[in-house]
Amino acid sequence: MAKITKQSDNFSKWYTDVILDADLADYGPVKGTMVVKPYGFSLWTNIRDSLNKMIEDSGHDNAYFPLFIPKSFLEKEAKHVEGFAKECAVVTHSKLISEEGSLTVDPESKLEEEIIVRPTSETIIWHMFKKWITSYRDLPLKVNQWANVVRWEMRTRLFLRTSEFLWQEGHTAHATKEEAMKETLEIVEIYRTLFEDYLAIPTIIGRKSNLERFAGADETFSIETMMRDKKALQAGTSHYLGTNFGSAFDVKFQSKDNKEHPVYATSWGVSTRMVGALIMVHGDDKGLKIPPKIAPTQVVIVPINPKKENSEEFSSFVMKVEKKLTHLDIRTHIDDLDESPGFKFNKWELKGVPIRIEIGLKEFDNMEVTVCRRDNSEKYQIQIDKIDEISTILQSIQDNLFNDAKTFMDNNTCTVSSFADFTDTLSKNNQFIKAYWDGTDETELKIKEKTKATIRCIVEDNEDSSNKCIFSGETAKHLVVFAKAY
Fold this sequence. Notes:
Layout: H1 11-21, E1 25-27, E2 34-36, H2 38-57, E3 61-62, E4 68-70, H3 71-75, H4 78-84, E5 89-93, E6 96-99, E7 102-105, E8 110-117, H5 122-132, E9 141-150, E10 164-174, H6 177-198, E11 204-207, E12 219-226, E13 232-242, H7 244-248, E14 252-254, E15 260-262, E16 264-271, H8 273-282, E17 299-303, H9 311-327, E18 332-334, H10 341-350, E19 355-359, H11 361-366, E20 368-373, E21 379-383, H12 389-411, E22 413-415, H13 419-428, E23 432-437, H14 441-451, E24 454-461, E25 478-483
Parallel strand pairs: 3-9, 17-18, 17-19, 22-23
Antiparallel strand pairs: 1-2, 4-8, 5-8, 6-7, 9-10, 10-16, 11-12, 12-13, 13-16, 14-15, 19-20, 20-21, 23-25, 24-25
């Protein structure tokens, strides 16, 4: 088993080592693409299923929309096309032909209109909404889809930024601005629950600045998380789109009094980027630490009986332990491969399994198991008739991972009142910095140019005229969080 790079030596290299060595993913043959391996896909599936239940329980229905979008659709919403134009993969022909043993594009198959490979689905969904919405009885319309999208990224990193990735994207239509804004904020809370209760990742949530807002949105709310190198990762977004897309696609509804009204919209999404966040928030020099609620394997059992003593009775005891755990709805795996115990211990620590149970001849004789926690390396014995305590231990691990990450984020978040303190903090400790900002694009751009730090989100609107912008000295409009980010 390859030795992974230490976080302190090279955090970026550590991150890639963990993904590859823990069998989460591998590089695809096309630059910027990613193959999600079975272990990584099982992790993604558990996250997906947890979120999907919350989405469905909140009144949304799953649907699926085409991967291919006519170019003219993107042109209908000016800010949207401007935001995505540089990332689009474009289909121009529909056929290949063989010439002298090699394939080439058939010039006769040129499409009348180029097709965009889905970078996001607002345009095609609002094209369909126009067909489906005519009356107030059709509203609200709330759909979600699980899909892949393509954004032709120049600089890629596994899970964090790839040319193709998996995500969910929700799209809703409402009769009023108030309804749409309520939806936008309710989704933020669903995402907060996902991150904090399932992924054990603490969040900072707020509005995006004008420069950081989603292309085509009136407001964007983001879920910001702190990685172990103290950089920020935007882990999810929820957008209030106003009537921008409804107007672009001429979607209107007839009210009870037979008057035509515009339709208000939202869109929101999280992606496989969440897996990247999970790795960088919880991982250590041994590899992954996966929160029990979304771990593909919650408990791995490692039998240790190299001389095969009492072989049949010993195996029966191991199976009895596995059966008891399965009856507790605990996802359990027995590692009975012909490898040394030390190799297995390292392997499952790397994969981040929350609990390892060791069963040797001593445990067999004493009718007990040895429990090893991945979160804090504690090790102790439990009698087999008290094996249901494993459920409590799993919850303890879940809570401990969140509390550890929350303490780390709190200890590395500070407030400054001058630009000198701002730059000094970034250069020495690279923290999340709360500071007042005058609300102008100009100031935001200058701070980014001088420090490479960006406004992650607006956490408060300022009502005290004595609070001044750290850069311009003008009266502040907002309290914001600055950070260097992925």
